[in-house]
Design a protein that fits this description.
Elements: E1 6-10, H1 14-25, E2 29-33, H2 37-41, E3 49-50, E4 62-65, H3 70-77, E5 93-96, H4 102-114, E6 118-121, E7 124-125, H5 128-132, E8 137-141, H6 144-156, E9 160-165, H7 169-197, H8 202-210, H9 217-228, H10 237-254, H11 259-276, H12 284-291
Parallel strand pairs: 1-2, 1-4, 2-3, 4-5, 5-6, 8-9
Antiparallel strand pairs: 7-8
Helix pairs in contact: 3-4, 7-10, 7-11, 7-12, 8-9, 10-11
Length: 310
Amino acid sequence: MGEGERLGWIGCGRMGAAMARRLLAGGHEVLVTNRTRAKAEALASAGATVVDGPRDLAGCDVVFVMVSGNDDLLAVTEGPAGVLSDPQRAPSVVVDCSTVATEVSARVRAACDARGVAFLAAPVSGNPKVVAAGKLTLAASGTAAAFERARPYLAMLGRGVTYVGDGEAARLVKICHNVVLGVVTQVLAEVTVLAEAGGVSRAAFLDFLNHSVMGSMFSTYKSPALVHLDFTPTFTTRLLRKDFDLAMAAAHDRGVALPVSALTSELVASAMGAGFAEQDFAALLVEQARRSGLVLEPEDVAVDDGLEAS
């Protein structure tokens, strides 16, 4: 971590803002920009310097990107007003934490290479509340030198950053991660419905599970949604299905069989068809109950999500 380095941040939505705040809390100089300027200005009180656009970050040492999709990433990097558009200046490293297609990531990597800029793909696992609790995790891929250059800052964003290799390896890791997310949630829905069919409340069953060897940070922080039937989206069922599709394509290309994942993908599609496409994927619980002849009701019980700030 260089002394007095200037950091840039592109994308101040709910997730990006939460992550940028952690760098600001660490005492770093952070310049921020967002397509909707008001979202960037909300970080000024935390010490951020607001600039007009990505091009204004060309003089920063390390620039982070957290945008919503493929086109946005292309626009803020290789676009006419992107961070690579200044012919005189460019950052040393661009770190993209967005969830984008592998081919788009490779295109941006090539654009960075052409300017002598190192590029790291660093997709994340978590949501804004997980970020605030200091429990975000990241996978990073690119050159080992670029990773070492950015690692101190990446480490400040959460509890763990893992270097997974060169090129776009981190994009595949994120897809694999989200397949596990879907499969585990479907199994969690099945056994929770089974317990409730036997007269056990969801709150009691999940409390037992979360304190057992099978409990996890994920099952714990998803428990309030399952108990209260609150499916305000942190990650929608539609987005989960998209990642299953990407995983199936990657498996086909590599000759890998994913039988359990393939079945779960169809169950996710079923939940979408039942009207849960834009709700949180925890709504798999309700669709599982429907298939089992149960109608669930919210339980008015306090449930700890396990996300104490750190």
